[in-house]
Records
---
Amino acid sequence: MRAARQDWFEAQPDLDPDTLVFIDETATNTKMARRYGRAPRGHRCRMAKPRISP
């Protein structure tokens, strides 16, 4: 494993940046934001959140 890792590390300068593809697999979405907040009784909950469009 150590040899394979070292080979990969040494081959990095040969990579062409124009051919690299990055995939975002975090699966984050603005619709995952909470729709409701909490505040002490008698106080308003004032928090910023992304706009959720219907």
---
Amino acid sequence: MTDKAKNMAHTSLVAIENSGLIVIAIATTLAMIKEVMHMIMIWDVTLADLLLMFIYLEVLTMVGIYLESHRLPVRLPIYIAIVALARYLILDMKELEVWEMIAITAAALLLGLTVLVLRYGHVKFPYSRHE
């Protein structure tokens, strides 16, 4: 493959990647607007609503960071997963069996510990591109 073909392929992939990120950002923004409109219509805001809004903001933050740095921060999807598990637990607590609540809580705890390990590794062993 020639350098020109490689450059063209790379440029195409970056354009597709950026287009996908823009679609994700627009879809997330629309979902956020829909949620706000729903809260206004019923004139009620619950903890589940706030957690869902937080998830939307985290997704937008992740898209913004990726567009700026072209690197996906590993911790952000983990934060989103923790909040999603908490939201699921809050919304469905009455319908969940005890073992299901324990499993969801254990999963959130495991994800929290994963964040701690990643943070410790990042501080102890900083990433350098030029090594």
---
Amino acid sequence: MATCSVGENTAGPPPGVAAFSLPNIAELIGHGEITVGVLEPVGRVAVASDDRSALAMLQRRKEETLLQLLIRLDQAIAKACNEDVFTDEINR
């Protein structure tokens, strides 16, 4: 089994990558969670939930980067919290 570790020099964005902010994800993980991974048979997904419900369930698009997926997740969390609009791309 492979193990991963994060070194001390990995703080901040890598060279050539502009700093970005995901404020809604940052706020949510104080009382909820996000999950990014593979869900069979759907494929690659990102899910955000709090202690009451799923706020957003996104399917990663073809050619979409992880950063783009996380930005969409951050926006979907805002939509759920501010407008009571819950995004579900998994259970169609």
---
Amino acid sequence: MPAVRVRVSGRVQGVWYRGWTVAEATRRSLDGWVRNLRDGSVEAVFSGPAAAVEAMVEACRRGPPAAAVTRLDVEPAPPPDAAGFRQLPTA
């Protein structure tokens, strides 16, 4: 199954972006994680069926209602070590 790492920039911290990501990824049965980065961006890894991963990446371009995404970088990534989707501490 494909895995990607995304980095989301803009107004994405303090707007429930991580909680929204956990809910959306779980709804799509994806594995991976999401965390805030100290520079104000959000980083996530998504792994699962290609169509579900692609749909999640597209959803991240919008994010939750209070977010204002200005940039989304996507690159291939190794699959996560654990099943399920979780929120990690800030890195």
